[in-house]
Automatic annotation (TrEMBL):
Cited Pfam families: Radical_SAM
InterPro entries the record matches: Aldolase_TIM (IPR013785), CofG_family (IPR019939), Elp3/MiaA/NifB-like_rSAM (IPR006638), F420 (IPR034405), rSAM (IPR007197), rSAM_sf (IPR058240)
Record-linked Gene3D superfamilies: Aldolase class I
Name of the protein in question: 7,8-didemethyl-8-hydroxy-5-deazariboflavin synthase
Catalyses which reaction(s): 5-amino-5-(4-hydroxybenzyl)-6-(D-ribitylimino)-5,6-dihydrouracil + S-adenosyl-L-methionine = 7,8-didemethyl-8-hydroxy-5-deazariboflavin + 5'-deoxyadenosine + L-methionine + NH4(+) + H(+)
Organism: Desmonostoc muscorum LEGE 12446
EC number: 4.3.1.32
Family recorded in the similarity comment: Belongs to the radical SAM superfamily. CofG family.
Organism domain of life: Bacteria
Function description: Catalyzes the radical-mediated synthesis of 7,8-didemethyl-8-hydroxy-5-deazariboflavin (FO) from 5-amino-5-(4-hydroxybenzyl)-6-(D-ribitylimino)-5,6-dihydrouracil.
Cofactor: how and how many bound: Binds 1 [4Fe-4S] cluster. The cluster is coordinated with 3 cysteines and an exchangeable S-adenosyl-L-methionine.
Pathway(s) annotated for this protein in UniProt: Cofactor biosynthesis; coenzyme F0 biosynthesis
Designated gene of the protein: cofG
Ranges where the Radical SAM core domain occurs: 9-240
Cofactor: [4Fe-4S] cluster
Length: 320
């Protein structure tokens, strides 16, 4: 897979499963969460029925994206086991799991490494001012808690995806500071494979009353991020949140090289349907960009994986 080719943009053929939408945080821009106890969790047999038909489609990554149960809740262990079991199921069915389930303990991360080819957590923004606004009721969004995750992922040699949420009340200087912090951790552990630059895009469920992040500003932010981040970290943008075709191409020209997991539904931004592969190609090809599939783990990290994980990864590298 020629991912170093300079006119290549990648994406991951993915499907998202959600163990639970319940979350003890209440970020005011959230369009995902439900109140704890209001929705049944996904069980293993339901997940199996969802995944079965995907085995004959070109789906490689299963993104396990979950709302959070409080670390001290009596339900935490059951929640964690459900996530672990869903990863194990996805693996047993030939898929490559990538989990993003909020901050985890060191031991939880260590266990999930066994059944994930990579993991992720958005840093969002480091500025503590957001704790008085959009994150007032979101204890998981303490910047030091999230930085700790980056550090533990590095110590555990987990290929990691992180990113910034843009336009939630931070300043431009806050962006550069957050990007610099990511760079610093990467220089220590060399474990960050991608940084997502996600523009805030208002949805129907949120209470945060603010305009969308101006997509026309995005290429400039990408160009500066490209200067700050080490060259071996790929910049990812979600194409469904850029909207305008020309500006999507402008984002690529500015240095973004990945469009993330493309699945039938964007669970985090359900009001913004994903552009499917065919349409993305139609936008990118005339501008001279080739769209190719990638795995949820970048090749330079394969040797960090256990033999049990390397076997399906090798298979997918020969297949996609
Ligand atoms: S954004 Fe994430 S952490 Fe915040 S309330 Fe929604 S699901 Fe929970």
């Amino acid at each position: 897979m020629p991912i170093n080719n300079s006119r290549v943009v990648t994406y991951s053929p993915a499907y998202t499963i959600v163990p639970t939408y319940e979350c003890f945080n209440r970020c005011s821009y959230c369009n995902f969460r439900t109140e704890p106890g209001k929705n049944p969790w996904m069980n293993i047999s339901d997940a199996e029925s969802i995944l079965k038909p995907l085995q004959t489609e070109k789906v490689c990554e299963i993104l396990i994206l979950s709302g959070e149960v409080h670390p001290h809740s009596p339900k935490r262990q059951e929640w964690f086991s459900r996530i672990y079991d869903l990863c194990e199921l996805a693996l047993s069915m030939g898929f490559l799991p990538h989990t993003n389930a909020g901050p985890l303990s060191f031991a939880e991360m260590q266990k999930l490494k066994r059944v994930n080819v990579s993991m992720g957590l958005m840093l969002e923004q480091l500025t503590p001012t957001l704790l008085n606004t959009v994150h007032r009721h979101a204890p998981s969004k303490l910047p030091e808690v999230r930085l700790q995750q980056l550090e533990w992922a590095g110590e555990l040699q987990i290929p990691f995806t992180t990113g910034l949420l843009l336009g939630i009340g931070e300043t431009a200087d806050d962006w550069w500071e957050t990007l610099a912090a990511i760079s610093e951790f990467h220089q220590r552990y060399h474990h960050i494979q991608e940084v997502i630059l996600q523009p805030h895009s208002p949805g129907n469920q949120q209470s945060f009353n603010a305009p969308p992040f101006n997509p026309h500003e995005l290429p400039e932010v990408i160009a500066k991020a490209r200067e700050i981040l080490p060259a071996d970290i790929t910049i990812q943008i979600p194409p469904n949140l850029v909207k305008d075709d020309q500006w999507l191409v402008a984002c690529i020209e500015a240095g973004a090289r990945d469009l993330g997991g493309i699945s039938p539904k964007d669970e985090v931004n359900p009001d913004y349907p994903h552009l499917q592969e065919q349409l993305l190609r139609q936008i990118l090809q005339p501008a001279g960009w080739e769209l190719i599939e990638r795995l949820p783990v970048y090749p330079q990290f394969d040797y960090w994986l256990s033999e049990e994980l390397q076997t399906p990864v090798r298979w997918w590298r020969n297949t996609l």
